[in-house]
Amino acid sequence: GVALRYYCTDDPLLYPVLAAQDCLRVRVRACGECDPGSSKYITSISQRETIKKAQVANLIKNAAKNMGLSQKDYSCHWLRTGGVCALLAAGKSDLVIRLMGRWSSWCFSVYATWNDTRRGK
Fold first, then answer.
1. Which residues, other chains included, contact 106 with Cβ-Cβ below 8 Å and sequence gap of 6+?
2. What is the pTM (predicted TM-score) of this model?
3. How distant is the alpha carbon of residue 117 from its chain centre?
4. Considering the domain boundaries, does residue 4 fall inside one?
5. pLDDT given for residue 68 in this prediction
6. Is the residue at 41 inside a domain?
7. Which among 11-15, 46-50, 59-63, 75-79 has the top mean pLDDT?
8. Among 28, 84, 101, 110, which residue is least crowded by beta carbons within 10 Å?
9. Residues 48-63: what's their mean pLDDT?
10. Do the Cβ atoms of 31 and 38 come closer than 8 Å?
11. Residues 118, 88: contact at Cβ < 8 Å?
12. Considering only 2-6, 61-65, 68-72, which range has the smallest mean pLDDT?
């Protein structure tokens, strides 16, 4: 088997917690108020339109290419798994992680392997 470890970063371009907070701020500005019933997705301001996975994947791959990195090493899945560890590092609960990542089960815990030495413990 293979063990994958993900670590938090202070780089604002790669920090999913900050990105999620930015999404909420944009949504509040667009909608006037962050009503949980107004849309199913945090990245959406309309019940009729959402940002498509392919659009996000293209943005990620283009960003990697522009940084001189291999596009095949970056995908939407990377955001979800990295998000799990970033939220853990921020001290968020399992429930918050499950809701923010739209995990339909507790399977996200497979990605939650955290190196305690990185947290200073």
1. 94, 98
2. 0.45
3. 23
4. no
5. 92
6. yes
7. 59-63
8. 110
9. 80
10. yes
11. no
12. 2-6
**Integer Cα distance of 54 and 62 in angstroms:** 12
CA neighbor of 101 nearest in space, from 77, 118, 120, 121: 77
Q: How many CB atoms lie within 10 A of CB 84?
A: 26
Query: Which element (helix H / strand E) includes 30?
Result: helix 16-31
Number of domains in the chain: 2
Q: Across residues 50-72, what is the average pLDDT? A: 85
DSSP state, 111? G
Q: CA separation (Å) from 64 to 61, 69, 118?
A: 5, 5, 25
Chain CA centroid to CA 33, Å: 22
Question: Distances in Å between the alpha carbon of 77 and those of 39, 58, 119?
Answer: 22, 13, 24
Least confident of 13-17, 63-67, 81-85: 13-17
Better-predicted residue by pLDDT, 36 or 61: 61
